[in-house]
Amino acid sequence: MKEVTLGLVGVGRIGVMHAGNITALNEVLNPEGIKVRLKLTDVAEEHARSVASRFGAEFVGSVTDLIDSGIDGLVVATGTATHPELIHAGVDAGVPVFCEKPVAVNVAESAPVVDYIRENGGTVQIGHQRRFDPGYTEAKRAYDAGELGWIHSLRAVTCDVTPPPVSFLATSGGLFRDCSVHDFDILRWLTGKEIVEVYAKGSNNGDPAIGAVGDVDTALAVVTFDDGTVGTVSASRYNGAGHDVRLELQGSEGSVLVGMDEQLALRSAEAGVAFPAGRPHKTFAERFAQAYRSEMAAFVELVLGARKNPCTPEDAVAASKVADAAQESLEKGVPVKVAP
Q: Does the domain spanning 131-287+319-337 belong to CATH 3.20.20.70?
């Protein structure tokens, strides 16, 4: 039986989720003869020990000790500002790294990290989990197979039920960078086309404190692809109906809608239509639970050399460049070209 030991740094909300998904992989991968072990660390030692006990993992006192203890892959689930240092540590240790997006706090600081990875032969998978969601993967299959014909319109939606704390928004870089960047990534991944221009507008009708820290609570971006195709990316922090994530692709031969299931956070205004009848998702973790599990399984396959990197640092930086252009457009009120 093959054994894979992953080291997890950071056990906040998303780190705890990753810990659970990593340990659950044994149920999925054991039939294939793969045993996954987990070691973890966090500066909040008492909490980290509790998480380790909960998931049958081993607590290690520091990042250095974690890497020195003998791991096959490093999972980074800490704050964005720490990502470059931890990516460097994993690359220096010669182990593949999984890092939550983004690579660094901005594109300028991401560039030298990407260069370092490339120059030192590192392998780093960035966490854009929508690439593993069954709906998005089916839409990509249909698009690649030519079932939709040529695409004339794309509409992406991401809406949270309630906004995160204002203290987070004050340093997040704005709605496009912390939320819509997932849509920008999935549009590039699904179509294989680059977004070359963005025109953005936003509004603030919720908590005035969000505007006070320079953010908006609702935004819309019109994006233009390198072949002239147009699309829209909309986001909101106040969607009381539920966590709503969708992508509509309309083509000359057919159309598909990702996210149209019984838990869709909409109701029909038409008489006699009961769909959707399920309880809407309330959080991103709930909406993408399966995608997060599949994402971590893919990382184990990457560690074992059984697959190519499903989301490179270059991919993540490309999506961040679109988000930067959207934020600049929002601030200036004019269309902005995306940096090559």
A: no
